[in-house]
Amino acid sequence: MRILVSNDDGYRAEGLQRLADALRPLAEVTVVAPDRNRSGASNSLTLDVPLRVASFGERAYYVNGTPTDCVHLAISGLFDFEQDMVVSGINHGANLGDDVLYSGTVAAAIEGRFLGLPTMAVSLVARDGGHFDTAARVASELVMRLMRAPLHSSMILNVNVPDMPYEHLRGFRVTRLGHRHRSESVVRATDPHGRAVYWVGPAGEGADAGEGTDFAAIAAGCVSVTPLQVDLTRHTALADLDEWLRGRAP
Ligand code: MN
């Protein structure tokens, strides 16, 4: 069993180290991670510059690219062996609701979707410090469960863990993605030459955070496990859209 571990916080992030350490007793772990924090990189590939790979330990590599680059390289030719699963994280911060569209952590998991087993993104819902040990234990339990009872291989699990000691967790919940209010306005500042620059502001609070959502599970002190799919087709709109197209001017 071979597990590829990646993240979007960069190869020096504590969460990456803790995740790799937690999974090493279960499988042969290879780490391929970005050379710096690429949070918010989403599913982007680097096409304008070549990618370089450097080693920072045994079976541990960093890349001058995005999380998607890292996983893409690792499963498409960097190694002469196949990976069985990708586990991404432990992200320092939530990936709830709309966050999954921007998340490099989730993107790394998505990039592993062609492998034989489901992939998993693990995030710790914490701003400072945080109980990475709790999230690491959750990740290892879920990987063990997957090894004993595999799910459909194209399934992507988005796991969010509340920031608390493991003993305080109130259980695991299967959830759907909620969604957030609009994010706060960009923050305007001035550079040393007097020109305007902008910072993207923080994400909004949960807007659809009701029963069944990932937000609600976290608020209740539960681990949230959301099954994701890549197919963005709005299947329920196909018939209506077909009718709409027929009504266009001849
Ligand atoms: Mn991140």
Overview of this protein structure:
This protein has helices at residues 14-23, 67-75, 99-102, 104-111, 132-148, 214-219, 238-246; strands spanning 2-6, 28-34, 53-57, 60-63, 85-92, 119-125, 156-162, 172-174, 179-180, 187-190, 196-199, 206-208, 223-228. With 250 residues, it is α/β, with parallel strands linked by helices. Strand 6, helix 5 (132-148) and strand 7 (156-162) form a beta-alpha-beta unit. The radius of gyration is 19 Å and the shape is globular. It starts with a strand and ends with a helix. 41% of the residues are buried. The mean pLDDT is 94. Manganese (II) ion is lined by residues 8-9, 39, 91, 93, 105.
Indicate the overall shape.
Answer: globular
> How many H/I helices?
7
Largest sheet: 9 strands, mixed
Radius of gyration over all CA atoms, rounded: 19 Å
Query: How widely separated are the two ends?
Result: 59 Å
Q: How much helicity do the residues have?
A: 25-40%
Heterogens: manganese (II) ion
| Range of strand content | 25-35%
Strand tally, please?
Answer: 13
